[in-house]
Amino acid sequence: MKITRRTTLALVLIGLLASTLLFNGCGRKEAESEGCPAGSYVANDTDTLTGPADSTFTVSSSFGFPSLGGTALLSPSTYTVTDNAGAPRNKICISLYTGGSTGNGFWYSDNTYHSVVHGSGALNKIVAETDDSGRATLYWSSENLPSANPVSSVTGTTTTYTAGKDQTGISWIQAYSGTLATVFNLSWTVQGEPGP
Predict the structure, then answer these.
(1) Among residues 38, 49, 75, 185, which is most buried (max CB within 10 A)?
(2) What is the CATH number of the domain that holds 157?
(3) Coil, strand, or helix at residue 23?
């Protein structure tokens, strides 16, 4: 009778311990504290988080028609989480922030780039979760780029035109999951209006 009671007590304790480990394991507490969806996890230290490769974007101007700047689209922006053996990790929560030289970038709901998704905080934070292939796909554009600088002129006996100076900057996305991080940089140039 005593052996049965001890065995039952031991099994109950093992069951409670196992359920506690399952509930708290794999970074669930950390994911919830970062605003991630229920049931998601943050990456482990042995995982790998990769994002898009750095890129450049140039807006050209022509004489008489200075560029209005606009935004640079990155279509789409894919982040991947794999384990130390290279296998994809699903349900991994990634926190993403965006900013740039002249303001924050923009998140969109889909690849039509019509519906802006407003993040939270000063750096427009959103969260994404990896799918079964270990990928989270996002739709993003740079902040509003400045207009091109117009040509300047000096009038004396003749008029001399000087091309407008180029404007340059960087838009970026920072991605975090657990202790892993990656940064994407979009270096942009808005070319000044060229002389005639």
Answers:
(1) 49
(2) 2.60.40.10
(3) helix
Domains in the chain, number: 1
Does the residue 21 lie in any domain?
no
Residue 3 belongs to a domain: no
The one-character DSSP state at 26 is G
The Cα 113–Cα 96 span in angstroms is: 18
pTM of the model: 0.78
Beta bridge partners of residue 10, listed in sequence order: none
- Bridge partners of 171, per DSSP, are 100, 186
pLDDT, one tens digit per residue, over 34-91 is 678 888 999 999 999 999 999 999 988 877 777 788 888 877 899 999 999 999 999 9
- Flag whether 69 is in a domain: yes
Amino acid in the structure at residue 22: L
User: Model confidence over 165-190: pLDDT tens digits?
Assistant: 999 999 999 999 999 999 999 999 99
Does residue 1 fall inside a structural domain? no
How far is Cα 65 from Cα 150, in angstroms, rounded to an integer?
Answer: 9
User: Dihedrals φ, ψ of 93, to 5°?
Assistant: -85, 135
